[in-house]
Structures are given as C-alpha cells and as structure tokens.
Amino acid sequence: MQSYNIHTAKTHLSKLVDKACGGEPFIIAKAGKPLVKVIAIDAPEPVKIKRFGFMEDKIRVPDDFDRMGEEVITHLFDGAQ
User: Fold this and answer.
1) Which is nearest to 38 in space by CA: 18, 54, 60, 64?
2) pTM of the prediction?
3) 6: helix, coil or strand?
4) What CATH number matches the domain at 2-38, 3.40.50.10860, 3.30.1490.20, 3.40.1620.10, 3.40.50.720?
5) Nearest C-alpha neighbor of 17 from the set 30, 34, 4, 29
6) Any coiled-coil ranges, and where (predicted)?
7) pLDDT by residue (tens digit) across 32-51?
8) Do 12 and 19 contact (CB within 8 A), yes or no?
9) How far apart are CA 17 and CA 20, in angstroms?
10) Coil/strand/helix, residue 34
C-alpha cells in the first residue's frame, strides 16, 4: 500500500481519491508516521483471519508439560561435571 506525506496528498488529492475509488487504498503520513488510511466507502471489508485456536482438537498438551524432561535437565545442570 502506497504512503504519501501530507503535502503530497494535499497537492494530488483529487488523483489519489480517484485511485482509492478504483480499489487502491493509500496511507497519509506525517513525518514518516502513518496517520490515516484512505479507502473507498464501498470497498469490501477485509477478511479477518481467526488465529487463536486454529489448532483446536488437532494437538494435545500433556498435563505434565511443564515437567517434561525435568530429570534430564536436572542431571545436565547439577549432575554432570
């Protein structure tokens, strides 16, 4: 997505609005920091990707997960010299 500083956006606003209406949203920035996103009103909403829980029912975390390998780790740090 293209970014324009405020001065450039003011100078070319009509052209940029036409591009946004044509499906090319853009960002207006001030001192390099993005401030606003310009997008056509009738543009489709972006599809939200469901990330949390995407592996539900596909993996199982053992009850002793926080203690797995405890003996080996203890031996490596305390027993091996």
Assistant:
1) 18
2) 0.53
3) helix
4) 3.40.1620.10
5) 4
6) none
7) 999 999 999 887 776 777 77
8) no
9) 5
10) strand
